Amino acid sequence: MTLAIEHLSKRFTTLRGSVDAVRDVSLEVHPGEFFVLLGPSGCGKSTLLNLVAGLEKPTDGEIRLEDQTVAAPRKGVFQPPRQRNVAMVFQSYALYPHLKVYDNIAFPLRVVRTGKSDIDQAVKRTAAMLDIEELMDRKPAELSGGQRQRVAIARALVRRPRLFLLDEPLSNLDAQLRSRTRLELKNLQQQLGVTTLYVTHDQTEAMTLGHRIALLKDGSLVQVGTPEDMYAHPRTAFAATFIGSPSMNLISARLRQEGQRVFVELGDTHTQIELKKDVRPDLRAKRKITVGIRPEHIQFNAERSPSFLSGRIGAIEPLGRELLLHVQTDVGPLLVLSADKHFKAGDTAAIGFDPNRIHLFEGRSNENGIQPSD
Amino acid sequence: MKEETFKRTIIFAAAGVTILFCLAPFGYMILTGFSRQADFLSPETPWVATLANYRAVMVSESLHFTAFMRNSIIVSASSAVISVFFAALAAYAITRLSLPGKLPFMFLILALSMFPPVSLVGYLYKLMTALGWINTYPALILPYVAWTLPLSLWILVSYFSRIPRDLDRAGLIDGCSRMQILFKIIFPVAAPGIFATLLLAFIFAFNEFLFALMLTTDHAARTIPVGIALFEGLHGQIPWGEIMAAATMATVPVVVLALVFQRRIIQGLTRGAVKE
Q: What is the number of other CB atoms lying within 10 angstroms of the CB of residue A150?
């Protein structure tokens, strides 16, 4: 099942004005793919999901399932959800409180008047898959959060949807249950091979679940790629800070060229890093740039390196395997991950950067309004 | 005395006084219904329990008690069902669809419900006369529906607005049309609210006096409150014992309804539907 989204826009108009929730988004989700829509709250990811489901009508653009156009305002096409055969799991689960678990799962089949024995078979098969067979006679009120979640997933999968949509399905579970369910969800999707569109604001979920991720901000697509690609080659400073935890450090910097050699000067200091890789041509002309470096790529004891920053260690957060150090430097606070655990608050440190590991972004970090997020 | 005990005593005493105050007229009504003469507190004659009044009410052809009762139940039940049905449709539209001017509409409805019945009854009489409906059920059902509709609508809007929108959305995804969502999801989930509203609308109609007095002429359509008020003894005296016996019996349907629906009304509205 291919899902194609082309130049899709959604504008909400209310009495107080209008909001562009989705701006000119184009995507293609391949058959059997686990595709994650990632972004901070209010970035339009849920609206995008609702547009695909048919719960919202797009303002412009086109949505196609397989070779069938399901929404295209310019062509006057709009299929309501029941014609699309897509299934959805809601953040709130949205189970029918007056129905037992069995009837909740059977509901989508009964609406389309499936035969009784077919319903029974499908419900039992799905319940077995999700390991909820012993809950069949209970009402949703008698279930725990994790059980409700499973029932919601079973209800969505029972009629073998063309497209499986999930709207932050794990955010109401506690941490332990969340990581377990995450793994199960991944296995389930693999096993069924159903094309899946998954909305989350949690980059860990996106990284662990998605074959590919689409990062959204303010209704626009920032970057689409595999988790590895998003981590290694973030296209903007926003993508860099949103993906990866703890998030990437951003430092304002200047570019300086000396013949064939290109240097980055950090902040207002004279610390400079010679770049070994080619600078993107569009950045070469810019003097003001932002340097990004991940906390795991910063080295200590770099006194001998020609380009080191001296800093003082402030707060220390032990993460178990390693320490997360907050280091105060001349270019501002930096986060550093260190496997070496002998640091104490107040220590001075010489920090070095591997030129192969730094990222360059257009503009000054604070001018872009970039907020490091976790 | 310990403070806890003291507090408890006060609470029970206050509750006792309140209950006594509220139930005293009913007690008086029931006692009078069972006593041989209306002035049962009179010291000259001893109080004797009797079922004579009840028997008289049930058997006496001239009182038409059973006819009044039947009229009341039919009129009240019909108007409650019609009113709640339309109110539920309207409440769904108001809480779920994007309609312009919802709030002004709701307040207009509320304002309409504040017209004193007295100001309408004269014209209603003319209207029903012109329609030839005087002394028929529709003559009462129609005004009762109109009169209870604002109340039903307001109660149901508040109930429906507490049902999470995600249930509607889940219904849409699961293949329902809007009407199917209403009948398969919203109505069952809102059942406690709907029963409560039905009961209220029923009681309103059951107790209504003025319209019933003006728009009916005899036992073909006259309802209980008017019927009892117009009870007359053989020689024109006021038959207190029979009035009280009839009044006692007239409270039975309401009490039974309240008891039957009690469980459904107080049970949780959307327990377990969504994660709060």
A: 21
The total of other beta-carbon atoms located within 10 Å of residue A190's CB is 13
Cross-chain Cβ contact B275/A81 below 8 Å: no
Cβ contact, residue pair A111, B173, below 8 Å = no
Q: Taken in order B227, B228, B232, B233, is the CA torsion positive or negative?
A: positive
- Contact partners, residue A210, CB within 8 Å, separation at least 6: A34, A35, A36, A38, A198, A226, A227
Distance CA B76, CA A316 (A): 74
**Taking CB atoms and an 8 Å limit, are B174 and A155 in contact across chains?**
yes
Q: How far is residue A75 from each of residues A61, A78, A89, B111, B131, measured CA to CA in Å?
A: 10, 9, 29, 45, 53
CB A80 within 8 A of CB A50: no
Q: Which of A13, A51, A95 to mutate to test the interface with B (most CBs of B within 10 A)?
A: A95
Q: Is the ipTM of this complex over 0.95?
A: no
Over residues A36-73, the pLDDT tens digits come to 999 999 899 999 999 999 999 999 999 999 889 999 99
Q: Tokens for B184, please give them.
A: 């398969």
Determine how many CB atoms are found less than 10 A away from the CB of residue B272.
19
Q: Cα(A68)–Cα(A84) distance, rounded to whole angstroms?
A: 10
Judge whether B127 and B189 are in contact, CB under 8 Å. no
Residue A113, C-beta contacts closer than 8 angstroms, at least 6 positions apart:
none
- CA distance, residue B172 to nearest chain A CA (Å): 6
Smallest CA–CA distance from A171 into chain B, residue:
B275
| Residues of chain B with C-beta less than 8 angstroms from the C-beta of A90 | 166, 169-170, 274
Among candidates B167, B180, B188 on the partner chain, residue whose Cβ is nearest the Cβ of A94: B167
pLDDT tens for A109-146 read 999 888 999 999 999 999 999 999 999 999 999 999 89
For the record, the structure tokens of A254 come out as: 């200047």
Q: What is the largest CA-CA distance in chain A?
A: 79
